[in-house]
Task: structure prediction
Amino acid sequence: MPGRNPKPLMILCHPDLQGYPQIQELVTKGHTVQWGNEDWASLADYDLVLGWNCWRMSSDLLKYLPEAVKGARAAKYGVRKEVPGADHE
Result:
C-alpha cells in the first residue's frame, strides 16, 4: 500500500522506466505515477515528467533554454572542444 505524502506529485514516466526501483520508491512514498502512453498535449497536468530526453521548461526557466539545448546536443553528439569565438547556437 502506498505511503502517505503530505505533498504528493502527479508523475508521468516513460514506460522504459517501469523496472527501476527508484520509480517504485516514488509510489511507495505516496506519489501518483502514470506511464507514458498519455496524450502528450496533457503534459501540463503533471507535476513531473520523467523520460530519457525530458527537460523542465517554464517561463521562469526560459533563461536556461540555451543550457538545455547545449546539454541535449552533448547527449546526442558527445562533448566537443569549444572553439574560442565560435557561436554554436
